[in-house]
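Thread: Modeling a multi-component assembly for a lab meeting

Hi all, long-time lurker, first post. My supervisor asked me to bring a structural picture of a complex we are working on to next week's group meeting, and I have zero experience with this. I have the sequence lines for every component (671 residues in total). Could someone generate the structure of the whole assembly? Inputs are pasted exactly as I received them:
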Amino acid sequence: MAAVEIAKTMAAPEKKKTMEAPVKEKVPVHMTILRVVYYAIMIVTVLLYLLPFWTTVTTSLKTNNEAMTTNPLVFGSELSVEGYVESFEELSESLVTSLLVTLGGAFGSMALGSVCAYGLSKFRFKFDGVFFLLLSAAIYLPYQAILVPLFKTVSSLGLYDSVWGLIIIHSIYGMPMCMSMFRGFYADIPDALIKQAMVDGNGPWQIYWKIVLPNTTIATVTVLVFQCTSVWNELLFAMTMAGSWTTPATLALNQMVGSLSANFSTQMAGSIWLTLPVLVLYMFLGKYLIRGYMAGAVTAS
Amino acid sequence: MASITIKDMTVSYNKGKTLVLDNLSLKVEDGEFCVFLGPSGCGKTTAMHCIAGLLKPQGGEIYFGDKLVTAPRKGVFEQPQERNIAMVFQEYALYPHMTVRQNMSFALETMKTPKDEIARRVEAMADMLAITPLLDRRPAQLSGGQRQRVALGRAMVRDANVFMLDEPLGNLDAKLREQVRYELKKIQRKLGITTVYVTHDQTEAMTMADHIVLMNGGHIVQEGTPSDLYDHPVNLFAAIFLGTPKINQFDCVVTKKNGAWFFEHEYFTLPVPQDMVECVKPYEGKVIILGIRPSDLVLVEGSGEGCITGVVDGVEPLGEAYLVYLKVGEQVIVFKYNGEQDSFSGQLNLRPNAAKIHLFDKDTENRINA
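Re: Modeling a multi-component assembly
Sure thing. I ran the full set together rather than chain by chain. Output:
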C-alpha cells in the first residue's frame, strides 16, 4: 500500500505533464522548464513536510516488534491496532484532562479577549491607548520569562497541579492574542451601527450581545479554532504548572517517550490520538476559518 | 414630543485648541422641522450628536422640554439610550443580521412594548412607507432607496421625543431624493414630531424646513424661516449659501451726483433705490458689495441708465426657464429668464428688481440694507 502511495506521488508530475501537453505548443520552452522546476520544488517541500507524519501513521499501525525492525516508510506485514489500544489506555485520562483544560482555557480567554476588544475598538476612554499597548506587548511576552513568578503565584494560590489552575493560566495568557484577533473584526463594525443601537435604547452590554456578537460569528469561530489548537498543543505550562495529579495529554505523551522508549508503535499511536481532535476541529470548521481569515477586510454591513 | 433648548454649548478637541462649536444657543420648538444647514465641517453633525447624547460637550446645557439632559458643568449627562430619540444616519446603519421587520421592531422590543402593539405599529409604518413586501428581507437584499425607507421607518415607528436625521438623502439619486423629501415632510407634519435634520444641501433646507439654522465655523450665521434667510441674508455667506444658481456679486462704489445716489460699477451705474439711500449714506465714496439673485434680474429692451449690460457667454435651458450666463467685463454673471424668448446672443440689458437688491459691507461682509 505504501508503495502504491509513493508511486502515486511520483506519478503526479508525469500526470501534470500530460495534462499540459495541448498547451505546450503555445508556451515557450523556458516557461515550461520553469514550471516543471516550480512543481518539483513544491512536491519536494510537501514530501518533506508529510514524511514525519507518514511514518507516524505507518509505525502506529505496526506491532511494537516490527516497528523496530522494518523500514519506517512502509507498512508492516500486517496492520495492528495494538499500539492504539495500548496508548489509549495510557492516555485516556489525560485526554479528558486536556479536553477540560482546552474548553475552559479557550472559553475563558475568548470571553475576556472579546470583551476587551469590544471596549478597545468601540469606546474611547482615558488611557485606552496605553491599555492596548500593554495588552499587545503581552502577546510577545516569552512565557519562559514569567515561569518562575507564575509558578510561585499559582502554588501560593493552591492552584498548582489542578485543572482549574491550567484553565486560569490559559485564560489569562491567551487573552491578549484573542483580544488582538477580535479587535480586527470588531473594528470593521461601522460606528454608526453602534450609535444607532444606542439611540434605539441599548446600553453597551446589550449592544455587545445583540449587535456585535451576532454579526461576528466568523470571528468567533476563527478565534475558537486558533485558541483550542494552541491550548490543546501546549506543553510548557502543562509541564511546569502540573504533572503529577493533573496531566494534560501533551505531557502524558512526552512522559510515554521517556518510560516506554522501545515501544515506538504505542508512542506513534498516542501521537495520532492527540492529533485527532485538532484534525476534526479543522475538518468541521475549516470552511469558516478560510472565510474568517479573509473576512477581516469585509465590513458587517 | 418636546422642544429642544440649547444654551451656550461648546465642543472642542485637543484640549480646547480646536473649537468645533462655539457658544451655540438655539431653540427648536415642539413639532418643528428644524434644519441645521452648513458646509461640511461647520459643526452641524456635532451639534446633532450632542443633542442625541452621542457626544458630550465641554460646556453648555441642553434641555428636552423642561428636562435638563446635558450639563457637563453640573455633572448632568443622560445616556443616549435614555433620551428616547430616533435617529437616521447617512449610512442607514441597518442591523445586517436582522430582517426589515426585526430592524423596525428592535427599539420597541428594547423598550418592552407589548408584542401585538409592536406588530401593529410596524405594519402601519410599513404600509405608510410602502415597504410591506420587504418586511421579511434582510438589508443586504434591498436597494439603496429601500434601505433608506427602512431606516426612516425604523426611526418613525417609535414614539420618540425627537427625530433626528443626518443627511438621510445623501446616498440617493436625484429623482428618488425629491420623492423621499416630499414624503418625509408629509409624514413629519402628520406625526407632528420635533425634527432635527442635518444637511449641506440648501435645496433640502429650503423645501422642508420650518426653521433653518445656518452654520459656519462652529457659529450660527443666521436662523429663521426659509424665506427669512433667502430674502434677508444677514451677510454675504448666507446670501451665497442659499439659492441656486448662486447670487451675483458686484463691487460698486457709492457715489452722489447732483443730489442723487448711485452704485458705480466699472461697467454700469445703477441708481440707489429710494429706501436704501439712508443705509448707503455712510458709505459715500467707498466700495460695497451689491448682490442680486439670478431670478431678480429682468431683461429690458434698449440700453440706458440703471441697466447691467453683458455679452452672452452661454445658455442652459432648464425646460421651464433658461439660465443665461453673461460676461460683464471679466466677470460672469447668471440670469434666470422665464419669458418667451428662446435664443440669446450678443448684448443683453438687464434691470435689477430694486426691491430685491442686497447690499453688503466690503470688509465685514455684513448686510447693509434693511
